[in-house]
Design brief:
The complex is a heterodimer.
Chain A: E1 3-8, E2 11-16, H1 17-30, E3 34-37, E4 59-64, E5 67-77, H2 82-101, E6 104-116
Parallel strand pairs in A: 5-6
Antiparallel strand pairs in A: 1-2, 3-5, 4-5
Helix pairs in contact in A: 1-2
Chain B: H1 7-30, H2 41-57, H3 64-78, H4 81-98, H5 106-122, H6 132-146, H7 153-174, H8 176-181, H9 186-203, H10 207-214, E1 230-238, H11 243-253, E2 254-262, E3 265-272, H12 275-285, E4 286-295, H13 302-320, E5 321-327, H14 330-338, E6 343-346, H15 355-364, E7 369-373, H16 380-389, E8 393-396, H17 402-411, H18 418-429, E9 433-439, E10 444-446, E11 449-451, E12 456-460, E13 463-468, H19 471-483, E14 489-494, H20 504-512, E15 516-521, E16 529-533
Parallel strand pairs in B: 5-6, 5-7, 7-8, 14-15
Antiparallel strand pairs in B: 1-3, 1-4, 2-3, 9-12, 9-16, 10-11, 12-13, 14-16
Classes of the chains: A alpha+beta, B alpha/beta.
Chain lengths: ~120, ~525
């Protein structure tokens, strides 16, 4: 994985992709309605459920200079408004990453890999 | 006294909840800082409840199961925003218990609320406490605890609502971002409003009376309801004796004024249209930090708000600490200005400015706290004297050369406070070694032998370390001596005596030593070259 840059007048800061992925993954765990992350290799069939240490696996990111885009592979709680939950997640990831890193978040794609009862 | 709720009562309760949310919408929007400070929690919860109302409108008002399913479905489909989704889960859990009953007594409502809290917690991996979740949990636990002692639903709901209020007031202790912003959780406040609406329906009282019983929420009275554009919050470090005057000034500039604290440290909250004036008043009495600006108007682009925030921060920072430096040479002055020096007093070797000149520069700045950089050993005493002659707080950064002055300004952080900068800048002086090449003004002798008037001499650490009839040679000798002790970065400040000359050999020498070289066209008299090695 590479690094993202944020340049300021006092120097240069580099943020590793892993850090951005963890930040996005952590935001998923705190986002209301998201009950799991799925490995992005499971596009079909039963989504693999991941523990906290491998949260990054449910996150794919692309960098472009000082901006970053995310693909998030998530499991949503059954019986919720999936569209609204996904929308909330997009806003939260964008906000957390932008405020914590100063990078611009270009876009966030949420891939709902499944729904389940808690 | 209401002992049982029938299906039709739920319709009225939904209406009452909507009334309560509508009443508090702006206030709730204004306190929305988590998970994303987009100021829409009140709006979202109201829209979610309006979707419930719409769904209930199509249900059989005599049939509990039909109404409960409508509430659940309506909140699910119409859920808006994070708190709307949580609310839909609370209602889903509650209606699961309610739909199987003909009517609802205290026992049933207590069970329903417990289930609501339980279901709500299940839909997130890491529930964040200090939010609407915390409030619903506290309310449901209280509901179970007091249910046996309650003769009526009003009595029960009144206890539950009071507990919800208590839990809401605790949210800043659980979620630091709330405490920093000086608010309680917006979603939790919305839930409290819904409870208040339910209670108003049961008692037949007006909402206002209910709230008085439950007490006002954490924010200052009227927060978010007046017609001001911005909410500004910050920490003010200032003398206790100045606070009263500042508070009066704030009242002239806006509403919802809150200045709390003591012992030179105050938290300030104000709603205003005149952000700049507020910051100006604050920096007049003291120093600001942790500035938070919120645009209270709905649907304002978040980007705009951040820009305003950054602007105010920058403005506030600029006003905190003033910097005066002594320098000579147009190029040097330009560099100093670009690094953040507010005012430059002309002076240097053999042309020391007077204390009066320094004092005039200090007093001319708008700031109450000033850092003074003499950039020459002989000017330090005059700089120190200004301290006693001004009402302002002055700190002298004891830079003895211009290169030390540059190092100090590199360490200067316009966003940091006076004391922090004083320490950092003074510390930065230690890392710099300075050498200079000048012309001997008369014949003399030194350790190196005879020096003739007009010879070029290299000065380092108060000694003459090189002499030559050739400027370049004198400079190279000096640099050889200076670089023996290592270093990473060297700045070469070219004086008027060396202007237009070819410095290539000097630069090549420095580059061969592995140094990073920065050349400044300083334009200073006396010293043809000044070298700063870090």
């Amino acid at each position: 994985m590479g690094e993202a840059n944020a340049s300021g007048e006092l120097g240069k800061i580099t943020i590793k992709d892993e850090v951005l992925a963890d930040l996005a993954g952590l935001t998923c765990t705190r986002c209301y309605g998201i009950v799991g992350m799925a490995s992005q290799s499971f596009h079909e069939g039963v989504a693999e459920l991941l523990g906290r240490e491998s949260l990054r696996k449910g996150v794919r990111l692309r960098r472009r200079e000082d901006a970053v885009s995310f693909d998030l592979y998530v499991i949503v709680k059954a019986g919720l408004n999936i569209v609204e939950v996904a929308h909330n997640l997009i806003e939260q990831v964008r906000y957390v990453v932008e405020t914590c890193t100063g990078l611009k978040v270009d876009d966030v794609q949420v891939h709902v890999q499944g729904v389940r009862e808690s | 006294m209401v002992e049982r709720l029938r299906a039709g009562d739920l319709v009225g309760m939904v209406d009452a909840a909507i009334d309560a949310l509508r009443l508090h919408k702006e206030e709730i929007n204004a306190m929305n800082v988590f998970p994303v400070p987009d100021g829409d929690t009140g709006t979202n919860m109201l829209l979610t409840m309006q979707a419930v109302k719409e769904a209930v409108g199509g249900a059989d008002h005599q049939d509990m199961a039909s109404i409960c399913r409508a509430i659940s479905r309506g909140s699910l489909m119409g859920a808006r925003g994070n708190s709307g989704v949580v609310l839909s889960q609370i209602l889903k859990g509650m209606t699961e218990v309610m739909e199987g009953r003909e009517s609802l007594d205290v026992e049933a409502m207590a069970e329903a609320l417990s289930r609501g809290a339980e279901v709500a917690y299940r839909a997130v991996m890491k529930p964040v406490e200090g939010t609407i979740l915390t409030v619903v949990k506290a309310a449901s636990e209280e509901g179970k605890r007091i249910k046996d002692g309650c003769a009526s639903l009003e009595q029960w709901l009144s206890g539950v609502t009071r507990k919800a209020k208590e839990a809401l007031d605790q949210t800043p202790e659980l979620l630091p971002v709330l405490k920093e912003a000086g608010v309680v959780d917006a979603g939790g406040r919305g839930l409290l409003a819904i409870f208040e609406g339910f209670l108003a329906f049961l008692t037949g009282e007006e909402l206002g009376e209910i709230e008085e019983e439950v007490e006002q929420a954490g924010l200052p009275a009227g927060a978010g309801v007046e017609d001001f554009r911005y909410e500004a919050q910050f920490i003010l470090h200032c003398k206790d004796s100045r606070v009263e005057k500042f508070r009066e000034a704030l009242h002239r500039l806006g509403g919802s004024v809150l200045v709390v604290g003591g012992d030179k440290l105050y938290r300030v909250h104000v709603h205003t249209d005149q952000l700049g004036k507020v910051i100006e008043e604050a920096s007049r009495v003291g120093r600001l930090s942790d500035v938070e600006i919120t645009d209270l108007r709905e649907q304002v682009e978040e980007a705009g708000r951040r820009a305003a925030d950054a602007e105010v921060r920058a403005a506030a920072a600029e006003k905190q600490v003033g910097v005066v430096a002594v320098a000579v040479g147009e190029g040097i002055k330009e560099v100093l200005s670009s690094m953040g020096v507010d005012r430059i007093v002309n002076g240097g070797q053999s042309m020391n400015p007077s204390t009066a000149e320094l004092l005039e520069a200090v007093d001319a700045l708008p700031q109450d706290r000033v850092l003074l950089i003499p950039n020459n050993r002989n000017i330090i005493p005059a700089a120190e004297q200004t301290k006693a002659l001004t009402n302002k707080e002055v700190a002298v950064i004891p830079a003895t050369t211009i290169t030390e002055g540059f190092a100090a300004m590199v360490a200067f952080d316009p966003r940091a406070g006076w004391e922090e900068n004083r320490v950092r800048m003074t510390e930065a002086l230690k890392g710099v070694r300075t050498g200079a090449v000048t012309t001997a003004v008369r014949d003399s002798r030194c350790g190196l032998g005879k020096i003739k008037k007009g010879n070029y001499i290299g000065l380092y650490r108060g000694e003459i370390v090189s002499r030559s009839e050739d400027l370049e040679e004198a400079a190279l000798h000096l640099l050889r001596r200076m670089t023996e002790e290592g270093g990473e970065i060297v700045s070469v400040i070219v004086g008027e005596g060396a202007a237009g000359r070819d410095h290539r050999n000097i630069l090549r020498f420095l580059e061969e030593k592995g140094l990073e070289v920065e050349v400044i066209d300083g334009g200073q008299p006396v010293y043809h070259y000044i070298f700063g090695l870090e």
